[in-house]
Design a protein that fits this description.
The protein is α/β, with parallel strands linked by helices. The chain is built from 15 helices and eleven strands. The longest helix is centred in the C-terminal third of the chain and has 25 residues.
């Protein structure tokens, strides 16, 4: 049975439909692997609910219910996505004891496709962080090297997928929170076009930037997951109709002949590890051999993306997190005098250091006298960044960049220097500011054996082109097939 853990989600789905293995068998296998939880990838496991769901799906397997190629394949859900009656903590003390009374739309759609969730994955508190070390439930360890971070904020979802404790997972991406941990953990992750996956039931960090997406073994798995997720939702005011929704998997051919791929020069300059640069540029060579056209271009707004992102994200976080006050739900301080003291003590004791730092930054840039100087200016630069991408896509179909400047840093290194942690998002945050789709895929390893990820960026609604290019690359390479060997220390 252990060889099943090495299958892709689509391969396992095919084996289930052929009757080669049962859904309860593979669910039990995943729960056993996740129960050991060697990387602290899970906050909550739901064995009873998972096995009951598996038994139910198995009963309906023969009656035509298995319409999705992922029917019965066990997966996991990031702990900021609501699943009815299952704790949703956002890895924060302040949401201790909170059990959502409803399902997120994204989870409803996965349920309709026959998903089986084995539990909720660990994350940076309220998705604020790039390492999954800010969690109230402890840091997640990278399965490739347990001394290193898995990336963040969807580090639990990435680590669980890489460690073969589930076949795929849902994450959320506000500034790279799917793509960067996918890069550090050697899996494939997609941040979809903003609005094409409903945010209803996603506990908000920065509403104009947040987007739910998949982490899986390869591009084909991600396409199958997005076929379930990308649907317009009347409960989400920003929800959009995705052209060609539900056809991503069937459109994968790997044919990239004539595809124009742009290489932004500013993404390959100072600060980029030479090993990362070499591996990412080799992606361009592989795609060229398959018939793509590669050209260099200039993207000068890159120097503005990190400050712009953190001003906007922190401002929205300050507003969104004001609802957590100890009154309506979640954790409450035990000793207080009056309502104001309740608010102050609950929020002071309930939020972690990084969350409080970002709330304060956001409150500052929204305050009287600074709103125009910082927040309004950031919104203007955001428009310039969107314009720069539109201009780039006038001459090319996709952009190729690194995901992160280095491979996974050691635990503790980033927390000791928050500014350095923020700068590690330099290649990913622009995608969220522009609302574009982005994909991270494994493209090599450094001299320590740590995964390196390459990022493909597409225009709005460009998921089909994005996934097809990644699929073509993965047909000629095997980096996405490599698995960690128990997280041995390097």
């Amino acid at each position: 049975m252990n060889e099943l853990l090495q299958c892709t989600a689509l391969e396992l789905g095919a084996a289930i439909r052929k009757g080669e293995v049962s859904i309860p068998e593979v669910t039990s296998l995943a729960l056993e692997a996740a129960g050991a939880n060697p990387n602290n990838a899970f906050i909550t496991l739901t064995p009873e609910a998972a096995m009951a769901r598996a038994e139910e799906l198995q009963k309906h397997l023969a009656d035509g219910s298995a319409s999705s190629p992922l029917y019965g394949v066990p997966m996991a859900v990031k702990d900021n996505i609501c699943v009815q009656d299952v704790p949703a903590t956002c890895a924060s003390k302040i949401l201790g004891g909170f059990r959502p009374p409803y399902d997120a739309t994204a989870w409803e759609q996965m349920l309709a496709g026959g998903a089986v969730s084995i539990g909720k994955t660990n994350m940076d508190e309220f998705a604020m962080g790039s390492t999954t070390e800010t969690s109230f439930y402890g840091a997640v360890q990278n399965p490739w090297d347990t001394d290193r971070v898995p990336g963040g904020s969807s580090g639990g979802s990435a680590a669980a997928t890489a460690a073969r404790t589930c076949w795929y997972a849902l994450g959320s991406d506000t500034g790279g929170s799917i793509r960067q941990p996918a890069s550090y953990c050697g899996v494939t992750g997609v941040k979809p076009t903003y609005g094409t996956v409903s945010r209803y039931g996603l506990i908000a960090y920065a509403s104009s930037l947040d987007q739910i997406g998949p982490l899986a073994r390869d591009a084909a798995d991600c396409a199958a997951i997005l076929d379930l997720l990308q649907k317009k939702d009347p409960r989400d005011g920003t929800s959009l109709e995705m052209p060609g929704a539900g056809t991503l998997l069937q459109s994968l051919t790997g044919d990239v002949r004539g595809l124009k791929i742009g290489i932004p020069a500013e993404c390959f300059g100072d600060g980029l590890d030479p090993q990362v640069r070499k591996a990412v540029l080799e992606v361009a060579e592989v795609l060229k051999r398959r018939g793509a056209v590669v050209q260099e271009l200039s993207f000068p707004v890159m120097k503005y993306v990190v400050p712009t992102y953190y001003i906007i994200a922190c401002a929205e976080a300050s507003s969104n997190l004001s609802r957590f006050d100890g009154v309506k739900y979640g954790w409450r301080a035990e000793e207080y005098e009056g309502l104001t003291d309740l608010y102050q003590k609950t929020r002071t004791q309930g939020f972690g250091t990084e969350v409080k730092r970002r709330i304060l930054l956001g409150t500052f840039v929204l305050s009287s006298g600074y709103y125009d100087a910082y927040y309004r200016k950031a919104l203007q630069v955001k428009s310039l960044i969107r314009d720069a991408f539109r201009s780039a896509f006038d001459s090319c179909d996709l952009l190729l960049t690194p995901v992160a400047p280095t491979t996974a840093p050691r635990l503790g290194e980033s927390l000791s220097d928050p500014l350095q942690m923020y700068l590690s998002d330099i290649y990913t945050v622009s995608v969220n500011l522009a609302g574009l789709p982005g994909l991270s895929m494994p493209c090599g390893q450094d001299d320590k054996g740590l995964p390196i990820g390459a990022q493909l960026i597409g225009p709005h609604f460009g998921e089909a082109t994005l996934l097809n290019a990644a699929f073509g690359y993965q047909q000629d390479t095997d980096w996405h097939k490599k698995a960690p060997k128990g997280g041995a220390r390097a």
